Amino acid sequence: MGLMEGLLLENARIFDGRGGALSASSNVLVRDGRIEKISTAPIPVESGAKTTVIDCGGHVLMPGLIDAHWHSMFATMPAAVAVTADVGYLNLVAGRSAERTLLRGFTSVRDLGGPVFGLKRAIDEGLIMGPRIYPSGAFISQTGGHGDFRLLNELPRNASGPLSYTERVGAAAIADSPDEVRLRAREQLMQGASQLKLMAGGGASSEYDPLDATQYTEPELRAAVEAAENWGTYVAVHAYTSKAIQQAIAAGVKCIDHGQLADEPAAKLMKERDVWWSLQPFLDDEDAIPMPDEARRAKQLQIIEGTDRAYQLAKKHGVRLAFGTDVLFTPRLTERQGAQLAKLARWFTPAQALKMATGDNAALLALSGPRNPYPGKLGVIEEGALADLLVLDGDPLKDLTLFEDPDTHLLVIMKDGRLFKNRLTSGGTG
């Protein structure tokens, strides 16, 4: 049997996902979906090996980007459509969106809520293009919580009555009491969730819950944590306030998503307990998600006002930070995914921001342990790592705004050793 087909990237300056300066001109051999060899010296191609050679021309080679808070099923359609449309239609729209996500350079996403298992399977089987998906499955929410999308005329729920539409399609799971939370958590794990997502506090886009509402009790959250840990993985929660954050950490949660209203004790607690803080650069700018009414807009503004302080607290206390965008219900904003990354320049050097969106986010993905659907190292360029790679027209360590226009500035996009875009000269040997 002959050698596996390979791909050789020559004359590239490498950002390795760990920060610091670019490497000297280097060559990278990819085979069987992984990085086989990295060398500043020429890499000879073995006789009999079919190898595609790409001359990077001194351009920057870096790991594929990772979005730690993405909603593959809900990013590109209005909320009213997302909670009422046929799930087959939702999948078709999400499939098209997944292709664009990959072509923006995001080769992996941590999906924090939605009926995404079918989409993930189609991508993994090569039926459609898209990023690696780390799925949470349905949002697990208390009655009236941030994941309860029911209309008021659907209340009260009859114990023997039908589930709401969003529950039936796997978008949400309403659970009250530790036993119900445990049941719904196990259902998501049964379907292949790599981590669980619970709503631990109020939100802006939800209609019923105040932003300062603390959702679930510690025993309810702990039931999900126990189910996840027994399955070898962890729980992430949606939480903004210090009270919600502290209760979640007391229950054993390993990742706080959002947290813009955190105070000093909450930030210290995240550091002490080695809890991840998945922050989004929510600002009152052209990328603010449109809100349907003044009440929700007021909640959104309160969150936005806390963004700068949250990043400052995280930096001050050395909390483990992840980068995510949390785009919801807005087609235009999905195309601004890379622009959200560029906004991190307000608080970090480009190298720090890129490390967060590659190597650091990959470390968060790896918290799923044995439930990791893609075993192997992501987010770094090193021998043996999975070959998710980008080549850029420009130096991202000097200018993060390159990611605002991926169609122009991303010359090569590779996932799992496969080329999905190549605008450079390539040839073959062997």
Total domain units: 2
Our measurement of the CA-to-CA distance between the termini, rounded to an integer number of angstroms, reads: 15 Å
**How many alpha or pi helices?**
13
Name of the CATH first level of the largest domain: Alpha Beta
Q: What is the CATH T-level topology of the largest domain?
A: TIM Barrel
Could you characterize the architecture of this molecule?
- The protein has helices at 79-82, 87-103, 117-124, 165-168, 178-191, 218-230, 242-250, 264-272, 294-317, 331-334, 337-342, 350-365, 406-409; strands at 6-14, 26-31, 34-39, 51-55, 60-63, 65-70, 106-111, 132-135, 139-141, 172-174, 196-199, 235-241, 255-261, 276-279, 321-323, 389-392, 410-415, 418-422, 426-429.
- The protein is of the alpha/beta class and 430 residues long.
- It folds into 2 domains: 6-63 and 380-429, Urease, subunit C, domain 1 (Roll); 65-347, TIM Barrel (Alpha-Beta Barrel).
- Strands 1, 2, 3, 4, 5, 16, 17, 18 and 19 form a 9-stranded mixed sheet that branches.
Features:
single chain, 19 strands, nine-stranded mixed sheet, 430 residues, alpha/beta, Urease, subunit C, domain 1
How would you summarize what this structure contains?
The chain is of the alpha/beta class.
Please render the helix and strand layout as text:
Layout: E1 6-14, E2 26-31, E3 34-39, E4 51-55, E5 60-63, E6 65-70, H1 79-82, H2 87-103, E7 106-111, H3 117-124, E8 132-135, E9 139-141, H4 165-168, E10 172-174, H5 178-191, E11 196-199, H6 218-230, E12 235-241, H7 242-250, E13 255-261, H8 264-272, E14 276-279, H9 294-317, E15 321-323, H10 331-334, H11 337-342, H12 350-365, E16 389-392, H13 406-409, E17 410-415, E18 418-422, E19 426-429
Parallel strand pairs: 1-4, 1-5, 6-7, 7-8, 9-10, 11-12, 12-13, 13-14, 14-15
Antiparallel strand pairs: 1-2, 2-3, 4-19, 5-16, 16-17, 17-18
